[in-house]
Every structure is written in C-alpha cells, then in structure tokens.
Amino acid sequence: MAGRSAALALLLSFALAGAGADGAVAADLTVTVRGVANAEGSVLVAVCTETTFLTPSCPYTGGAPARAGEVAVTVRGVPPGRYAVQSFHDENGNTDLDRNFLGMPKEGLGFGNDAPIRMGPPGFEESAVAVAEPSGRTALSLRYFMER
C-alpha cells in the first residue's frame, strides 16, 4: 500500500508541475503584432509584471520572424494574472531596441491595449491585459518614430 501511495504522490506532483500555489496552470498568450514595417529581423514580445515592466527583466518572452503586416507571437508558460505587454521590431537582430542620439526608438515599438506613447512610454495599467488559463489572445500595433 505504501508503494501505491508513493506512486500516486509522484503522479500528482507531475500533474501539478508548473501550477501556482492556487493550483492554476500556466497559459499561452498569443499577441498579434500589427503594423510590422518589413520582413527584416524578428518581432519580440515581453509579458511583464508590474515590477519588471520597462526593464530587460520581463519573465515571459517570445519572438517570431518579422514579415510586413501582422505577426503572431506566442508567449508560453504565463501564470494567470495581470501583465503589461510590450513589443518591438528587432530589425537588425541584436535583441535591443535601438535608439538614435536623442534617445528616440529607431525600431517599431508598441504596448498592450495600444497604450499611447506620449512624452515617454505608457504606464503599467495602460498596457496591462488579463491572462487566464489555458490560453489568451491580445493585439497591439507598432509605432515607428523614425522616417523609413
């Protein structure tokens, strides 16, 4: 009987792998990125907690080859919750948002809910979306600030 209990416990631990403290499992969030200017490089997406938003430390990321128009990027393993979404078109493949000497982005940039970019990036709440299991979808549009 002890062997059966141990096997059941092991099976249960595998079933709950990846689950949070409340038993929730991670979700896949598919982000449709609109307004991609060309097929150079990749489109990168980051799904960020409030403390990691606008930093290079967002815990959930994904990418897909660029193509003019729309690109769907799936970010896997996102626990249910509220996250800000940010994306950019990494045209030269260096995984950095390139900027000019004034600090203006040289590559397309966008945020969840198409949050406006005024004199700087939007706040967490403006860019945040709810993620629920097993999957979710959202969309955003890139903005290019430099002449193409």
Description:
With 148 residues, the protein is mainly β. The protein contains 2 helices and 8 strands; from the N terminus they run H-E-E-E-E-E-E-H-E-E. The strands form 2 sheets. Strands 2, 3, 5, 6 and 7 form a 5-stranded antiparallel beta sheet that branches. A 3-stranded mixed beta sheet has the order 4-1-8, with no helix packed on it. The protein starts with a helix and ends in a 7-residue tail after the last strand.
Question: Topology of this protein?
Answer:
Elements: H1 2-15, E1 27-36, E2 42-48, E3 60-65, E4 69-78, E5 81-90, E6 109-111, H2 124-127, E7 128-131, E8 135-141
Parallel strand pairs: 1-8
Antiparallel strand pairs: 1-4, 2-3, 2-5, 5-6, 5-7
Query: What class do helices, strands and sheet pairing give?
Result: mainly beta
Uncertain segments of ≥5 residues (pLDDT<50)?
A: 1-21
Helix fraction, binned, reads 10-25%
User: What is the average per-residue confidence, as pLDDT, rounded to a whole number?
Assistant: 86
Q: What is the CA–CA distance across the termini? A: 71 Å
Number of helices: 2
**Strand content of the residues, in percent?**
35-45%
The number of distinct β-strands equals: 8
- Indicate the overall shape: globular
Largest sheet: 5 strands, antiparallel
**Helix-strand sequence:** HEEEEEEHEE
* Radius of gyration based on Cα positions: 18 Å
